[in-house]
Amino acid sequence: MAELKGEAKQRYVSDMFARIAGRYDLMNTLITGGLHHRWKRKAARLTAHGLTGDALDVATGTGDLALALAGCPGVTQAIGVDVLPPMVALAEAKARKRNLTEKAVFVLGDAHALPFPDGTFACATAGFSLRNMTDLPGALAEMARVVQPGGRVTTLELTPMPPGKKSGLARFYFQGLVPLLGQVVAGDRAAYTYLPQSVDRFLEAGRLAQVFQDQGLIDVGYQRLGFGAVTLHWGHKPP
Ligand SMILES: C[S@@+](CC[C@H](N)C(=O)[O-])C[C@H]1O[C@@H](n2cnc3c(N)ncnc32)[C@H](O)[C@@H]1O
Description:
The protein has 9 helices and 7 strands; from the N terminus they run αααβαβαββαβαααββ.
């Protein structure tokens, strides 16, 4: 299914996330041993560092990154946008539980056509969602468009690991154990088989950095996290 493109891919991805929305957080915590919270806090801190204004989290899912942004110094409000109503509802419920409904707001919207004017945000991020986009350069261009000059765009993503011992272990884990976990915990083996397939088909970290540059972003860089399985990318809109 990871080979789908265009509308068929968007339909598949939306159906899949609608099915697993209720178990999404639990599965993330099980798959990463809870580390995804640490990666998201790090991504939020880097995204907002030294900036003042509103912050955007694209394809926010259950809202973790938006809520982490809302707690960063300089962030006046964090807006999370997602294409799926059940994800937006879960993110809103999380914000209510943490008394953050003023500071973190969630709206429906498509990453390929963000419902915001140019230069609305001081910074924008997207976590574990680029692989699911039907037009990756287009989605990154949208993030760059809605950020102010001098603002920052970051992404957190599972990227193919460089060959080696660690990549063999990761392959065994993601292709063998994760689908089984998906079947037992989320009742959806297909969704957690799509996950490693979509990583295999995704850009290697250096090539993703090039896509950032192709959208006009400067001072682009990246850092590997999670034993090399996760990459945090950043870039800046020229002042
Ligand atoms: C793997 S989840 C990531 C959620 C969250 N960012 C996180 O880090 O946990 C991918 C999310 O992308 C959303 N999504 C998929 N296609 C989208 C699109 N075209 N526009 C906005 N959101 C989209 C899905 O609904 C889902 O919530």
